[in-house]
Amino acid sequence: MRSLLYAVGPMLFDSLGVIVFAVLLGLGVDLVIATIAGTVTAAGVVGYELARGRKVAALQWISLASVLFTAAATLFTGDPRFVMAKPTIVYLIVGSVMLRKGWLDRYILPEQLALVGDVMDRFGMIWAALMFASAGLNLVVALFFTAWWPLFIGIFPLASKFGLFAVHIAAVHFIGQARLRRRAGGELQPLAAE
After folding, report:
1. In the predicted model, what is the mean pLDDT of residues 11-16?
2. Where does the chain cross the membrane (predicted)?
């Protein structure tokens, strides 16, 4: 339970701007208002980290930059296609960042990293694949099923991420427990040899 709470906090915080935007759209709030609310929230997340003297995660900067760019384009042109295309662009950028080894390390207790760090790296690739798949799916829905896009963006991004998050946490927990049992039984070599 401690591991789950440790991971959930940063995940929700890092995604807060997107969550606000998606929930508002899912509730039928005007596109411009949802965009402004998402932008203010994303800026607030970065501002909060800076005010506390913490390092702002790369994904937070990317999220803020993309929200600001698409919000400005939407507000200046009044064209909602900028907002509809934004998730595809964001997912491609985020997916590319997620290809970097070790990006998930901040979401696990430091004492568990030595035990399941390799599993976290594998899940990093799975998360990247989800982002790339989400980018393609968003583009298809935005271009060919435009009327359904607000419902799609209000449900799929959060549902798919929380679904993968549940699988990720469960798999890491079970693998970590199995490794601890084997290690206690003397079946595993020291960490340096793994």
Report:
1. 70
2. 5-25, 31-51, 58-76, 88-104, 125-145, 151-175
DSSP for residue 54: P
Asked whether 106 and 77 are in contact (CB, 8 A), the reply is: no
Per-residue pLDDT tens over the stretch 133-157:
999 999 999 888 888 887 887 789 8
Q: Please provide the average confidence, as pLDDT, over all residues in the chain.
A: 81
- Please provide residue 45's backbone torsions phi and psi, each rounded to the nearest 5 degrees: -60, -50
Q: What is the Cα–Cα distance from 52 to 42, expressed in whole angstroms?
A: 16
Domain of 136 in residue numbering reads as 2-193
Do 119 and 112 meet the contact criterion of CB atoms below 8 Å apart?
no
- Residues 125 and 130: their CA atoms lie apart, in Å, by 9
Residues 43 and 86: beta-carbon distance below 8 Å: no
Please tell me the distance from the alpha carbon of residue 81 to that of residue 83, in angstroms, as a whole number. Answer: 5
pLDDT at 79: 64
Is 31 or 189 the better-scoring residue by pLDDT? 31
- Per the structure, how many domains does the chain have? 1
